[in-house]
Design goal:
Elements: H1 2-34, H2 40-68, E1 71-72, H3 79-91, E2 98-102, E3 109-113, E4 119-124, H4 125-130, H5 133-148, H6 151-178, H7 188-231, H8 234-246, H9 273-278, H10 284-293
Parallel strand pairs: 2-4
Antiparallel strand pairs: 1-2, 3-4
Helix pairs in contact: 1-2, 1-6, 1-7, 2-6, 3-5, 5-7, 5-8, 6-7, 8-10
Length: 296
């Protein structure tokens, strides 16, 4: 099952690249029409998407760590944390990831990187203070499973690329609304294309968010079950998730672009139907229920 998941994630990473190229190239073409650049907009869109994709692949994890405020720590500072991760990564047959700690009292954690050889695990100060050894091991096993399954590559690419699409869509809409060129020398065909482009610019962020949702939710369930195989203890993670569900602390460094990387949605106090539909995580209650049904 794990091998199938790894293969699936690698294929989906390639598909994500292709979808990103198509959307950015189309926006570049429409942008060229708005400003009378002709087909140079397509060239710009292609080059921009290529550079963004390369940046996402090689530097996306560093950007995520910077946004989250995570600080790389040493074994002398957090001996118990290092020993627990060392035990779990040996069980998973993975290289030792870099270890970071994030400021904040909220219980949370995430893993990032482009592959297991370039992976990082980040935990909040709150997780280290509020979770006992068994619970923390369950959380860390969950994150190491994300590394083993290559979820980290797909999720960090999603974070950077979705953010780029949203940024460019907003820029396109503003350019379209305030450009004085849009009414000059436009044939009816061009106006139709511009209208389609405008609609695409509006829908692109929504489409990008839906991609993020589809990628994130199922992977949390899989990482929960895979993590249990490493820790041999479903109750540890289940109890950690129960504490997370009762945790009222805010994570001030939380950012919507990277919320799907965390073990639990870092934004608290939003329980309406719309939030549930667009949440990048399945409910904690459903995850806890599935864990309590597991037998090791």
């Amino acid at each position: 099952m794990i091998n199938n998941q790894i293969t699936s994630n690698k294929i989906k990473s390639v598909l994500l690249f292709l979808i990103f190229f198509v959307i950015i190239t189309i926006l570049g073409y429409i942008f060229g029409l708005v400003f009378n650049f002709g087909y140079s907009g397509v060239v710009f869109g292609f080059i921009f998407s290529l550079l963004s994709a390369l940046f996402s692949y090689y530097y996306g994890d560093k950007l995520v760590l910077r946004i989250s405020g995570a600080r790389e720590v040493t074994k002398n500072e957090y001996l118990s944390l290092f020993e627990t991760i060392e035990k779990l990564r040996k069980e998973a047959k993975l290289p030792m990831p870099k270890i970071h700690v994030m400021p904040g009292n909220q219980i949370n954690a995430f893993a990032t990187g482009r592959n297991p050889q370039n992976a990082s695990i980040s935990v909040t100060e709150g997780a280290l203070m509020k979770l006992n050894k068994e619970e923390l091991e369950g959380v860390l096993a969950h994150e190491i499973s994300h590394i083993k399954n290559f979820d980290i590559r797909l999720m960090v690419l999603t974070a950077v690329m979705v953010g780029t699409i949203v940024m460019l869509s907003h820029f396109f809409i503003r350019s379209f609304l305030f450009s004085g060129n849009r009414d000059r020398n436009n044939s009816s065909g061009q106006l139709i294309v511009l209208a389609i482009g405008f609609v695409l610019a509006i829908l692109s962020p929504i489409f990008a968010q839906l991609i993020k949702l589809a990628i994130s939710r199922r992977r949390e369930y899989l990482a929960d079950s895979s993590g249990v195989l490493l820790s041999k203890n479903p109750i540890g993670l289940a109890n950690a998730l129960k504490k997370i569900s009762q945790d009222k602390d805010e994570l001030k460094t939380a950012n919507g672009a990277i919320a799907h990387l965390f073990i639990s949605n870092p934004f608290k106090g939003k329980k309406n139907l719309l939030f549930s539909l667009f949440s990048t995580h399945p409910s904690l209650e459903s995850r806890i229920s599935k864990l309590e049904e597991l037998r090791i």
